[in-house]
């Protein structure tokens, strides 16, 4: 089990590093955020399986629901910025003038 948690922790850190270093396009930032949420979900799922608690499983479903809502909001922002500015390149966006 520790190798699974190590691999999931490594995937979380890779997504975090990708989010901090690759900020040129909005879609890449959204993919990194989604990767972070999915690895967090998988880590909490393995921990809840070890603990065998039904309360943790309901919290996991709430986390997954909030993750899906965040992904939907991010994609709607992506579509909106692409329609108004012509591209999803974050270097061209000036959020103070939108």
From TrEMBL:
Q: Membrane-crossing residues?
A: 26-49, 55-80
Spell out the molecular function terms from Gene Ontology.
NADH dehydrogenase (ubiquinone) activity; oxidoreductase activity, acting on NAD(P)H
Using the UniProt record, give the first listed, main subcellular location.
mitochondrion
Name the Enzyme Commission number(s) assigned to this protein.
7.1.1.2
Q: Which Pfam families match?
A: Oxidored_q2 (PF00420)
Broadest EC class assigned to this enzyme? translocase
Which keywords does this Swiss-Prot/TrEMBL entry list? Answer: Electron transport, Membrane, Mitochondrion, Mitochondrion inner membrane, NAD, Respiratory chain, Translocase, Transmembrane, Transmembrane helix, Transport, Ubiquinone
Q: Which reaction(s) does the protein catalyse, per the Swiss-Prot or TrEMBL entry?
A: a ubiquinone + NADH + 5 H(+)(in) = a ubiquinol + NAD(+) + 4 H(+)(out)
Per the UniProt entry, what is one GO biological process? ATP synthesis coupled electron transport
Cellular location of this protein? Answer: Mitochondrion inner membrane; Mitochondrion membrane
What Gene Ontology terms describe where this protein resides (cellular component)?
mitochondrial inner membrane; NADH dehydrogenase complex
Q: How does it sit in the membrane?
A: Multi-pass membrane protein
- Would you identify the family this protein belongs to, as annotated? Belongs to the complex I subunit 4L family.
Q: Tell me the function of this protein.
A: Core subunit of the mitochondrial membrane respiratory chain NADH dehydrogenase (Complex I) which catalyzes electron transfer from NADH through the respiratory chain, using ubiquinone as an electron acceptor. Part of the enzyme membrane arm which is embedded in the lipid bilayer and involved in proton translocation.
Q: In its UniProt entry, what is this protein called? A: NADH-ubiquinone oxidoreductase chain 4L
Q: Which organism is it from?
A: Sphenodon punctatus (Tuatara)
